[in-house]
Design brief:
This protein is an alpha/beta fold and about 260 residues long. The protein folds into 2 domains: about 140 residues, Rossmann fold, CATH 3.40.50; about 110 residues, Rossmann fold (3-Layer(aba) Sandwich), CATH 3.40.50.1860. It is built from 10 helices and 10 strands. Strands 4-3-1-2-9-10 form a 6-stranded parallel sheet, with helices on both faces. Strands 6-5-7-8 form a 4-stranded parallel sheet. Helix 1 links the parallel strand 1 and strand 2. The structure holds D-glutamic acid. D-glutamic acid (DGL) binds next to helix 3 and helix 7.
Length: about 260
Amino acid sequence: MNKSIGVFDSGVGGLTVLNNLINQFPNEAFLYVGDTKYCPYGTKTKKEIENRVEAIVSFFEKEDVKAIVIACNTATANSYHIKSKIPIIRIIEPTAKKALEISHKYNNYNHHIGVLATNYTIDSLAYNKFLKDEMIGVRCSPFVEIVEKGEKGTEESYNVVKEILNPIVGKVDTIILGCTHFGLLLPEIKNVLPNVTIIDSSDCVSEVLKEYLDNNIIIKNNDINNINNIEIICTGNPEEIQMDWFKHKYQGIKHVEIEK
Ligand code: DGL
């Protein structure tokens, strides 16, 4: 059954998830939505984010995808109320579980996990639910803008990351990149926190998708060449998308209006 897997984020951050998913599932087709018209999500209200998540889930339902991967922590925090006939794969729980597993594996760890996420994700307490008092949250929404504008690797990006992360230096032994944009700022983050274990939410979600595909063997694709099956669409201006770091081939970026 050659249906695509829908993947979405507010912008380019979810492409870090898509990168991993393509590597892990080379025979699958993917339909990626970057909701760039409404990016960033992390400084919006609950209602505004919910509206976007509902609009994009309905879009994927109309496109008849076989699974929806919410490649965005902020959107995941606002997605638990959604009922869909299509399975929805969320990013927060697998990431939090992985961080707990790693942090508890080593006796010399202090079991303080820094969660770097958007302002909304931190304020929503979505990670606290799993990490409880082991969590130290850091509101990092300015990082999203740096990535969306293609300004990573600059003096400014190193300064912004340093200023925001300085308060947790020496306090955590594990950090969660609780926003899919943040893997693209790894050099900046490691510059401030060189000796911590880093759990990237972008890596954790593929295990859940694998479990889903393994348990639903008939929906697996076996015979397609995915180079022609990676579709990327955005709701804003395609010319503004900064994704030269994206490793896989795709057929251009299409603009689509997705409104409720
Ligand atoms: N990449 C998103 C996340 O994982 C959100 C970025 C934003 O739009 O604020 O939370």
